[in-house]
Design goal:
The radius of gyration is 25 Å and the shape is flat. β4 and β5 form a beta hairpin. The chain has two helices and 15 strands. It is mainly beta.
Length: 242
């Protein structure tokens, strides 16, 4: 192994990064990898001892001039538009989208949305695990939206795009009007046993400084906080009491 042979091999596979440790190729530097001191990469290459090929649990990484992969945001379909809704959890026991579609020529956001539209009428399409395509007319609970970094597995069909991840769906929603749809967030109720109270701007001399609100329906997703901006001119803020 030398730096040159590793780079040539990775380049032939259309990868963006080449790393010398045990000879590794990828188009994404995976989380939670962090940059380490250059002096940690102090092992000579087996094929050329004058070059350095990483070190114990350390890798020298080289980047090509190819553009990095992306999460596709929008896919145009005729006059309609499929827009990215976010990265969502999925499991075999409780599918977020229920209908799987096989795409012989390879799964990408473009080919998956086209396949769901052809097999439909489906309004949601999702790519998962680098090669899976799923369709449905609704997004099923108990899924939760997570950070986009969770959906950073390369599409098997192209290293230029991401296709979800293991148990992670990158979901797209179709709009016949061609207008981008806002990402879905309120998919399940996950907060219970609370009281919503309004606080007076000018509390009365006698009596409570806050007043409970009588009817409240709250749906929250993990790591997504919803705030009531105003209730009445008499109140300055609203808070949750647990």
């Amino acid at each position: 192994m030398t730096i040159e042979t590793c780079i040539n091999f990775c380049n032939s596979g259309n990868f963006i990064f080449a790393g010398v440790e045990f000879g590794h190729c990828d188009s994404t530097i995976q989380i939670p990898s962090q940059m380490a001191p250059a002096t940690d990469c102090n092992m000579g290459c087996s094929g050329n001892s004058t070059e350095l090929c990483g070190g114990p649990v350390r890798m020298n990484i080289f980047q090509s001039n190819k553009p990095p992969p992306i999460i596709v945001q929008n896919v145009t379909s005729g006059t309609g538009l499929w827009s990215y809704q976010g990265c969502f959890t999925d499991s075999v026991a409780a599918r977020t989208l229920n209908t799987g579609v096989n795409i012989p020529l390879g799964t990408t956001p473009e080919s998956c949305t086209a396949a769901c539209q052809a097999a439909g009428p489906f309004t949601f399409a999702g790519v998962e695990n680098g090669h899976e395509c799923w369709c449905d007319t609704t997004v099923h609970a108990p899924t939760q939206r997570v950070g986009d970094a969770d959906c950073r597995m390369l599409c098997a069909a192209t290293h230029a795009e991401y296709c979800g991840n293991s148990n992670r769906l990158a979901i797209y929603q179709f709009s016949a009007s061609g207008q981008s749809t806002a990402p879905q967030a309120c998919l399940q109720t996950s907060l219970t046993n609370f009281t919503l109270r309004a606080q007076f701007k000018n509390p009365p001399t006698n009596g409570p400084s806050t007043v409970p609100l009588k009817v409240v329906a709250v749906e929250m997703v993990k790591n997504v906080l919803w705030t009531v901006l105003s209730v009445s001119a008499f109140f300055s803020s609203v808070r949750l009491d647990f």
